[in-house]
Each structure stands twice: as C-alpha cells, then as structure tokens.
Amino acid sequence: MSIITLTLIIFIGSCFAGLLGSLTGLGGGFVIIPMLTLILHIDIHYAIGASLVSVIATSSGAAAAYVKEGITNMRIGMFLEIATTVGAFAGAMLALHIQTHVIAVIFGLILAFSAVMSFLKKVETAFTEGSPAAKKLRLNGSYPNGDETIKYGVRNVGGGFLMMIFAGTISGLLGIGSGALKVIAMDTVMRIPFKVSTTTSNFMIGVTAAASAVIYLQRGYIDPGLSMPVVIGVLAGALIGSKILVHTQSSGWLRWVFTIVIALLAVQMIYNGITGKI
Amino acid sequence: MAKSYNFKDKDMQLVIGWLLRLGVIISVAIVIIGGMIYLIRHGHATAGYTTFNGVPDFIYPPGIITGVLDFKARAIIQAGIILLIATPVLRVIFSAIGFFREKDHLYTAISLLVLLIIIGSMLSGYGG
Predict the structure, then answer these.
(1) CA distance B125 to A211
(2) How confident is the model at residue A249 (pLDDT cuts 50, 70, 90)?
(3) Model-level pTM?
C-alpha cells in the first residue's frame, strides 16, 4: 500500500473514531487502536503511540473550554495527577516489556468494561461536607450552575488516589485516556459531582498521556507519518461530535449502535490477542 | 482572604484555558503543514508499519532542529507532535507559577512534584 492511500484510510478512520469517541464519551483511542491493529495490521506499539498523541490533542482542546467556565477543580486535578503520572510511567514501562497479545487482551477487557459503565445509570451522591483529608488538601470546592453556586465536599481521598494510579497505568499501557476509570475514581469513590468529575478528568487526561508519551516517543513508537493522520483525524471528528452533541438531545438508539460497535471491537481484540494474531 | 483566592483562581483558569487552546492550535497547524509536505514528497512510496522499524532520527532536539532546518517533512511533523506533548506539561508549569503567586505553597509543591515525575519519565527513556 502506498503512503498516500494508507494516510487517507487512517485519516477517514480517525475522523470516525474521534466522532464516536466524543459522542460516547469514551475517547478516540478506543476505536483507533483496534482499527490500526486489527484492520491495517500495524504494530500495536505504533498504534498506542499515535493514539496517545491524539488523546492529548482532544483532551487539551476540551479542557481549554471547561477550565474557562470554572467547573474544573484544578486542585483535585493537580493532586490526582501525582497518581496518574506515576501510573502512566509504570504503564508505559510495562507495555515495553509484556507481549503484545497480552496488551490486546487487556485492551479488549477494559474496552468492554468502559462500554458497560457508560451505559449504567449513575446516581449522584455528592456531599456538601468533605472529609478531614480533603479539607487539609483544600480539595473541596464549588461550581457555577446557572445563577447559583453549588458547594461540594470530597470524600475518600486515599481510595480515589489508589484508583487513579490504576487509571494512569491503564492509560500508559494501552494508549487511551482511560476517562471511564478516572470518572469512577472521582464519582463513585470520592463522591465528586458529575459535572466536576467529568471536566476534571478531561483536564487530567492530557498530563497523564504526556507522562507516558515521552517514553513512547524516545523508544521510536510515535512515528510522525502515522501519527499525523491520526491526530488530525481524531481532532476533526471530535470537533464534529461536540457540535452534534450540542444540537441533538440524548439520542438513545445512536448510543445503542455505538455500544454494539464497541462490544464487537472488544471481542475482536480479545479473540485476536488469545489466538496470538496481534 | 477567601475572596482574593477566588479572584486569582479565575485568572489562572483563563491563562491555562488560553495556553491549552493555543498549544493545540499551533502544534496541529505545524503537523498539518509537515503532513502536506510529507505526502507531496513521499506519498507514492510503500508504507510499512507492520513491524517495528527501529528508532527514527527525529526524537531528540538536535536531530529535530537540523531536520526542520533541512525542511524534512517528518521532522516538521515530529516538531508539531512534541509541541503537542509539551502543551499539558507547560500547563503544569503554569499551574506551579499560578499557585506560587497565590501563595498556595502546598499546591506549588504538588505541581512541581507532578513536573518532576514527568521529567523522571522523560529521563528514564534516555537510560534504556
């Protein structure tokens, strides 16, 4: 295949991945990596490298908008980034030393798990009072909601921190934002309101991905020719996706279609990993 | 006291929002320019990413700078990608400065710690 053909195919696929990623809230990496490895038979390390770069682009772009609105809690983000960057470093190191088919199986499992999680109805259980540790770390905050300001307290800081180390490791190992895991750490464990947890998670994804991207870069796994169509495509797709999201009210059937696509990708990754084809 | 904190947090949010936006726009623009040159020059060569090809030349600053000066397409793309990776790292540096100016020493230290972890991650690659 010539470079121009491959670049065009990857660009179109990445647009689709970015669109799907922003509409489901799962991120572009989840579609990019199966596409590059299963369909185009590209080495999974190259796929992870390219995906990480696209993750940095989309999350930084989205975070820019959220930060200005004042919903993102920069202290929670900064504090938990200690955990995610340590995890990302460990994950990238792990990826260089374990066999590629093991990475494929883990990818499939995390993908399936995230798809299920995105579908479960969540119940918000935020508190107005935080725990003593949260108070010491000044994690409690408030966010604007229309005309009023809603105050919230943060619980279970230690548990959330541990969960974030895991989320960072998965991000570094698989080259995804692992936003689903970050949101669980903040929603379910630390009881942070949804609006704050999703935007703060987005804020952290870029730094987390950068901590492992520097390792992939130096090992030669971030290839300019391959990353170029992926980054541009995913970003374009995500931009289109965010425009659609503003204009359509929660379209249930669309989410079902996406979830089926994602479930199929997960099964394929696990199957190809187990049979050693990746 | 509490009021002055709030005000400065707002300033920092604005600066960081702009930093992230500019970082993404500039780096992606560089990647697009490099990509166009790359496709015009090498578009008809055969692609090969099925197996790992070894470490390319454009990873460390000296190689990239000479590559960009020689107008090599892959070096220009890589410069854009590195700027993109640097964007969130710059955000951490700006947060450290912001927290320092707010006299929030705890969070100045936390920001610097995150920066140290990223630098450590970067240096580990040189060792291997």
Answers:
(1) 11
(2) low
(3) 0.91
